[in-house]
Amino acid sequence: MADEITYEYKTVQTVRGTDGLVISKLQKDGWELVEQAPGMLRSTLSFRRPKKPLPLLLIGTAAAFLVILTIVIGVASALSDGGEQKDASDESTAAASGKPSATSTPTAAESAATEVITPQNNPEFAALLLKADTCDDANLDFATRNKGRTIAFDGSIVNMAPHGDYATRYDFLLGPGDNGPKTGVGPAFKYEDVNIFDLKLTGKEIPATVGAGDRFHFVAKVGEFKANQCLFFLDPVSTETR
To answer: Which of the four CATH numbers 2.40.50, 2.60.40, 2.30.30, 3.30.450 does domain 115-241 have?
Structure first.
């Protein structure tokens, strides 16, 4: 009798309107759609695909490893008494010499690199968000020094347009504050060639669609500032409703 097929399963949630994109991507990876349950704001998609059999060579290797591991444990047990006495002696010597622990603590520079930049903890960023000139050299200075770091600010969508000929990929123009298309201060932040899923929407009420005027708390990675376009490019990390 033929061997019974064993499946692995995956369930994902998508923002309404992006179902086709997610289904196509997973099908390319060998997943089969078995159920699609649409909701008010999100759809739940269930997939399955046959599990790959464990290669015989890998099974034999694992067995050999277990044998070796058993031998090593036996040898370690036999030497444990002498090892414990030596370790205690080494610890006493280290304490007497006053040498620092091997565990390192992050430097001030390392801590600064991982800190999320906000208007509350970074006066330079706070001032940048209030500048009336989107082409101000302060944009280039800030982008150059902080490229790759994470920033967070309350803002709104100034403009949203399809990217090229795509129907589900967009270019977003963002601004600080709540004024949407009427934003008059701060850099012209841009998300280029992203879909709704890339925004990583979070919050109590996740919208089915987004558009100009919608307000969010944006968290993003600093990209480059293109002075010839007066555009400050960012990469989305998360987008929280507010």
So the answer is: 2.40.50
